């Protein structure tokens, strides 16, 4: 794994791009490309092969959602995508999560939150806590407006894995899962890894989305 994190910043506002670039480079993160439209973001991601793309949702010509779909649809190990938004519960963010984005950031994040988020998703984790993701999913799941809804066959999962996925979708951390199921955290991590592998998911965020999209968990269910 490379020591330096490589990032593409996609936003149609020059001041936003400049501010993010200054914050990231000051923390030793390498900004390898910038984009003002969704198409430019796709081109930059293909050209520079970054670890993370900071993607604004609302951009001219092609929005960040479509750009995210195209970037994550490529074969092989593509970059992680963090969506940028001015709204903490934007319906477009939910659609982006179903397309494979690893989370979202509000544009008023602190420098520490920005660099921390980039490093977190680069390491293979998801930015959103499952409880926050659940709130997002419950608000928008089942409305039908997201064309990129994730569909997976849960038949590949064992009964225990289905149980873990259901609890994960309710916002439980690995420690809470371990306590609830009377398992070690190492065993829980193994179950989660197998769930992600069998369902071909990037991270826990997508796993929560899948739990709702497949009906394993219903919005509002305790």
UniProtKB/TrEMBL annotation:
SUPFAM superfamilies from the UniProt entry:
CheY-like
| Gene3D superfamilies, A to Z | 3.40.50.2300
| Superkingdom in the source lineage | Bacteria
**Which Pfam family, any one, appears in the UniProt record?**
GerE
Residues recorded as bearing 4-aspartylphosphate in the entry: 56
| Limits of the HTH luxR-type domain | 150-215
Alphabetically list the UniProt keywords. DNA-binding, Phosphoprotein, Transcription, Transcription regulation
Q: What GO terms in the biological process aspect are recorded for it?
A: phosphorelay signal transduction system; regulation of DNA-templated transcription
Under Gene Ontology molecular function, one entry of this record is: DNA binding
Q: Where is the Response regulatory domain?
A: 6-122
This protein's name: Response regulator transcription factor
Upper taxonomic lineage: Bacteria, Bacillati, Actinomycetota, Actinomycetes, Propionibacteriales
